[in-house]
Amino acid sequence: MELVLQNANGSTFQEISKKNFRPLPIIKASLDLLKAFNTQSQGVFDKIIASEAESRTLAQLRDLLLPKLMSGEISIRDAEKMVEDVT
Asked: CA torsion 34→39→43→45, rounded to 10°?
């Protein structure tokens, strides 16, 4: 990262040109290291996917229930029951 910053320039924010970026050395991880990373990180990625799905479900519930609660069409108890049925 230090080497990248040394080659960056710009007055508003630092940037690096393709010309300066291309000659920078990179380290390529071995296949064994990539497999180990995948094994260790898969649970995190699975949790992210599950959390995104849960977030979408909760947003849909909010969009469905909030107008009904505010209009008095349903009670808090009714809304809680609907949420329990979904989750």
From this structure: 20
Tokens matching residue 69: 């609660």
Structural domain count of the chain: 1
User: How would you label 61-85 residue by residue, b for 16+ Cβ within 10 Å and e otherwise?
Assistant: eeeebeeeeeeeeeeeeebeeeeee
Q: Which of 52, 20, 19, 32 is nearest to 4 (CA)?
A: 20
The Cβ of residue 8 has, within 10 Å, a number of other Cβ atoms equal to 14
Per the model's pLDDT, the better-predicted residue between 59 and 85 turns out to be: 59
Span 31-63, pLDDT tens digits: 999 999 999 999 999 999 999 999 999 999 999
Q: Domain range for residue 60?
A: 2-86
